[in-house]
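INFO batch 0412 | record 1 of 1 | parsing
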Amino acid sequence: MTLTLIAAIAENNALGKDNKMMWHLPDDFKHFKTRTSGHYIIMGRKTFESFPSALPNRTSVIITRQEDYKAPEGCIVVGSLDEAIKVSPKDEEVFVIGGGEIYNQSIDHADKLDLTRVHATFEDADAYFPAIDPTKWEVSSENFHPKDEKHKYDMTFQVYTKR
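INFO prediction complete | emitting tokens
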């Protein structure tokens, strides 16, 4: 299995506030959909509940401490990151999609980071992506996307691989 953390993060590693993203970047959403469609996606309960419904064409693995948590049909509910990894296919790329606590638990297990770096700083965020240790990770590809009429901020799509 290739375990990939996928996230859009600000310059200060901000992810969001009040269980919502702090920006609207349609091309980042397209990137996320393209990369994760057809795959297992691992997330915390609060991240799952931030979506209007289970994301289509993906298998949602939801981590929660709630023993009687009721998820929609087709979703898998587990109690820990280790369980989430165990129920995921061993011969595929599996994506961790948030939130901050789940990223913190999973970064040391990850093989790859697929990040959209939003070129702005958000001081009032309440969820952050973990610090990326440059002795463990290196950028293997980058693609800059300038701001435009649909995108308020410049962003760079970055893939990090383990050193």
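INFO post-check: The two ends are 18 Å apart (CA to CA).
INFO record closed
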